[in-house]
Amino acid sequence: MRIEQSNEILFSITTEDVQSEAIEKLGRKLNEEEIKIAKKGLENALMFNIDTVYKTIFFEMI
């Protein structure tokens, strides 16, 4: 049995991931202020599934 490292990343969302979703959902990339809003939304919504996370952060921009 392999022992997991305590610093192992289990899940990651990059700025590129958020920008791809923005292009798909909003038809454009986000600016720096919108990236900050997206980051805050992700931090506040980590208890939800990923679709709910994206809906939460993009709701702020509509």
What are the SSEs and their pairings?
Layout: H1 15-26, H2 32-44, H3 50-59
Helix pairs in contact: 2-3
Report the uncertain regions: none
Most strands sheet = none
Task: Bin the helical content.
Answer: 55-70%
| pLDDT averaged over residues | 85
User: What is the tally of beta strands?
Assistant: 0
Q: Roughly what fraction of the amino acids lie in strands?
A: under 5%
Supply the number of helical segments.
3
Sequence of secondary-structure elements: HHH
What gap, in angstroms, lies between the N and C termini? 48 Å
Structural class: mainly alpha
Describe what this molecule looks like in 3D.
The chain is mainly α. It has helices spanning 15-26, 32-44, 50-59. It has a domain at 17-59. The chain is built from three helices and no strands. Helix 2 (32-44) crosses helix 3 (50-59). The termini are far apart. The mean pLDDT is 85.
